Amino acid sequence: MSTHFFKSNRRHFLGALALGASSAFTVRGAFAEELTRTPTTNEGPFFPNKLPLDTDNDLLIINDAITPAVGEVTHLSGRLLDAKGAPLRNAVIEIWQCDRDGIYLKQHTRDGDPFDTNFQGYGRFLTSSTGEYYFRTIKPVPYHGRPAAHIHARIWKGDKKLLTTECFIKGSPKNEQDGQFKQIRARDPKGHETLCLDFAAIKGSKIGELAAKWDIVLGYSPEA
Question: What does the UniProt keyword field contain (predicted)?
Answer without folding.
Answer: Dioxygenase, Oxidoreductase, Signal
